[in-house]
Amino acid sequence: MEEIAIKLKADGIIKKEISSGKGEFSTFPDGTKVKFHFRTSLCDGTVLDDSRTMGGQSKPMELILGKKFKLPVWEQVVTTMREGEVADFTCDVKHTAIYPTVSLSLRNISRGKDPLDGQRHCCGIAQVHSHHSMGYPDLDKLQTNPQPLVFTLEMLQILPPGSFQMEIWAMTDEEKLGAIPQIHENGNSLFKSGDITAAAEKYYSAIACLKSLQMKEQPGDESWIKLDLLITPLLLNYCQCKYLQGQYYEILDHCSSIINKYDDNVKAYFKRGKAHAAVWNEAEARADFATVVDLDPTLESSVTKELRAMEERIRKKEKEEKGRYKNLFTYSSKASAAATTG
């Protein structure tokens, strides 16, 4: 243990064991999977991220060693731990300068967003020195003024290579592309069985995977477009899940992004029209449904059905509002009369 601490300290890392682990130390060969909870803090104790609370849920971090995670220091420090161990690792700036970008991805994932949302198409070092807002004041401040960080890790599980099924994020680029069709099909099967949440997770993981590959291509190039054409149907399926879950504004964002690139995508207009109708954007819904019929006249009966449903909801809402106003007026009149009589 003392030898490990000396080596870490020489590399700008100070380890403080809080709770000792159990069992023997692993040799951590490449391909080992580690599962751990983390809390990231400034040296003054200010907490930046906590895997137990990110996105309103408790979800441990998982790493497969040797896959070149964006924050190399995590791969370095976990190899000094045993299962059940809790330790603080205070790391110099040379290890933490990239953390704002990593944190942004983790926060996006915890909120069900694209992990690359808010990141520019550039290398990690360039992102460290860029000055665009990341959407979080604490990350903006840390990006502008990098500083040492304290990582508090609790090692939950250490799995040797071959003892677990490889997850998509840990695959090579070729393995990812090969796995996408099966993940898509798994999502479809889950959707048909009524497990909408699990289906959405499948579609989302495939989308995130393809977007990570797309980030390596020049926007507009043939390879980029091919990947985008794989992303689009997955994103539309994801939107269908979100519609059933009542996440209408997320649908508006995703479908608009598709339409901005492919202005003849009938499904995107149709799903966006339904989402507009759900949030009472009558004019926008009618415009989208009109475009659907222009692009594909065979869908006129489906559009008519959606328009009738929207109109019925609007009439019902107006009737309810009139009733509330009437009751409010009646109550106000009675209250006024009572006050006068008194």
Break the fold down into its secondary structure elements and pairings:
Blueprint: H1 2-10, E1 13-19, E2 33-42, E3 47-50, E4 61-64, H2 72-78, E5 86-91, H3 93-96, H4 99-110, H5 124-129, H6 137-144, E6 149-159, H7 173-192, H8 196-214, H9 222-244, H10 248-261, H11 266-278, H12 282-295, H13 300-341
Antiparallel strand pairs: 1-5, 2-3, 2-4, 2-6, 5-6
Subcellular location: Cytoplasm
Catalytic activity: [protein]-peptidylproline (omega=180) = [protein]-peptidylproline (omega=0)
Keywords: Cytoplasm, Isomerase, Phosphoprotein, Receptor, Repeat, Rotamase, TPR repeat
Description:
The protein has 342 residues and is α+β, with helices and mostly antiparallel strands. It is built from 13 helices and six strands. It has helices at 2-10, 72-78, 93-96, 99-110, 124-129, 137-144, 173-192, 196-214, 222-244, 248-261, 266-278, 282-295, 300-341, and strands spanning 13-19, 33-42, 47-50, 61-64, 86-91, 149-159. Strands 1, 2, 3, 4, 5 and 6 form a six-stranded antiparallel beta sheet that branches. The longest helix has 42 residues, at 300-341. The model is unreliable at 120-130 (pLDDT under 50).
